[in-house]
Amino acid sequence: MLRIFVINSLMFLLPFMLYGAYFYLAHKGADSKTFWADAPLLWLLGAGAALVLGAMAALVSFGGAKPGGTYVPPRLEDGVIKPGHVE
User: Fold this and answer.
1) b vs e for 62-74, b when ≥16 Cβ sit within 10 Å of the residue's Cβ?
2) Rounded to a whole number, what is the distance in angstroms from the first to the last CA of the chain?
3) Rounded to an integer, what distance in angstroms lies between the CA atom of residue 18 and that of residue 21?
4) Are 52 and 11 contacting, i.e. CB atoms less than 8 angstroms apart?
5) Domain of 27?
6) pTM greater than 0.70
7) How far is CA 81 from the centre of its chain?
8) What is the number of domains present in the chain?
9) pLDDT in tens, the chain (87 residues)
10) Which residue, 16, 49, 53, 74, has fewest beta-carbon neighbours within 10 Å?
Protein backbone atom coordinates (compact mmCIF):
# COMPACT_ATOMS: atom_id res chain seq x y z
CA MET A 1 0.00 0.00 0.00
CA LEU A 2 2.85 2.37 0.77
CA ARG A 3 4.36 1.64 -2.64
CA ILE A 4 1.13 2.67 -4.37
CA PHE A 5 0.90 5.86 -2.29
CA VAL A 6 4.51 6.79 -3.12
CA ILE A 7 4.04 6.12 -6.84
CA ASN A 8 0.85 8.19 -6.99
CA SER A 9 2.42 11.01 -4.97
CA LEU A 10 5.43 11.15 -7.28
CA MET A 11 3.21 11.08 -10.37
CA PHE A 12 1.16 13.99 -9.01
CA LEU A 13 4.22 16.04 -8.05
CA LEU A 14 6.17 15.36 -11.26
CA PRO A 15 4.68 18.28 -13.28
CA PHE A 16 5.38 20.67 -10.38
CA MET A 17 8.99 19.45 -10.09
CA LEU A 18 9.53 19.78 -13.84
CA TYR A 19 8.06 23.29 -13.83
CA GLY A 20 10.25 24.22 -10.86
CA ALA A 21 13.36 22.93 -12.65
CA TYR A 22 12.40 24.81 -15.82
CA PHE A 23 11.74 28.03 -13.93
CA TYR A 24 15.01 27.73 -12.01
CA LEU A 25 17.07 27.12 -15.16
CA ALA A 26 15.30 29.72 -17.32
CA HIS A 27 15.12 32.49 -14.72
CA LYS A 28 18.26 32.19 -12.62
CA GLY A 29 18.38 35.89 -11.79
CA ALA A 30 14.62 36.37 -11.36
CA ASP A 31 12.85 37.12 -8.10
CA SER A 32 11.72 33.90 -6.42
CA LYS A 33 8.51 35.57 -5.19
CA THR A 34 7.08 35.41 -8.71
CA PHE A 35 7.70 31.67 -8.92
CA TRP A 36 4.18 30.47 -8.04
CA ALA A 37 2.44 33.73 -8.93
CA ASP A 38 3.15 33.16 -12.62
CA ALA A 39 2.82 29.36 -12.54
CA PRO A 40 0.07 27.75 -14.63
CA LEU A 41 -1.39 25.98 -11.58
CA LEU A 42 -4.53 24.70 -13.31
CA TRP A 43 -2.46 23.03 -16.03
CA LEU A 44 -0.03 21.58 -13.48
CA LEU A 45 -2.91 20.18 -11.41
CA GLY A 46 -4.51 18.70 -14.52
CA ALA A 47 -1.27 17.13 -15.66
CA GLY A 48 -0.65 15.71 -12.18
CA ALA A 49 -4.16 14.25 -12.03
CA ALA A 50 -3.76 12.72 -15.50
CA LEU A 51 -0.45 11.11 -14.49
CA VAL A 52 -2.01 9.70 -11.30
CA LEU A 53 -4.91 8.21 -13.26
CA GLY A 54 -2.47 6.76 -15.80
CA ALA A 55 -0.34 5.25 -13.03
CA MET A 56 -3.42 3.74 -11.39
CA ALA A 57 -4.56 2.25 -14.68
CA ALA A 58 -1.10 0.80 -15.30
CA LEU A 59 -0.90 -0.71 -11.81
CA VAL A 60 -4.34 -2.27 -12.16
CA SER A 61 -3.70 -3.56 -15.67
CA PHE A 62 -0.23 -4.98 -15.24
CA GLY A 63 -0.12 -5.89 -11.53
CA GLY A 64 -1.56 -8.78 -9.59
CA ALA A 65 -2.05 -12.43 -10.34
CA LYS A 66 -3.58 -14.17 -13.33
CA PRO A 67 -7.38 -14.23 -13.47
CA GLY A 68 -9.01 -17.49 -12.44
CA GLY A 69 -6.28 -18.49 -9.99
CA THR A 70 -6.92 -20.04 -6.59
CA TYR A 71 -5.99 -17.95 -3.57
CA VAL A 72 -4.01 -19.77 -0.90
CA PRO A 73 -4.23 -17.85 2.42
CA PRO A 74 -1.26 -17.25 4.73
CA ARG A 75 -0.42 -20.21 6.95
CA LEU A 76 1.85 -21.13 9.81
CA GLU A 77 4.45 -23.81 8.99
CA ASP A 78 7.09 -24.81 11.54
CA GLY A 79 6.67 -21.53 13.42
CA VAL A 80 7.15 -19.42 10.25
CA ILE A 81 4.31 -17.53 8.60
CA LYS A 82 4.12 -18.33 4.88
CA PRO A 83 2.51 -15.45 2.95
CA GLY A 84 -0.63 -15.92 0.93
CA HIS A 85 -0.40 -16.29 -2.83
CA VAL A 86 -2.41 -17.18 -5.93
CA GLU A 87 -1.79 -20.51 -7.66
Assistant:
1) eeeeeeeeeeeee
2) 22
3) 5
4) yes
5) 2-86
6) no
7) 30
8) 1
9) 788 899 999 999 999 999 988 888 887 767 767 777 778 999 999 999 999 999 999 988 887 777 788 999 999 999 999 998 888
10) 74
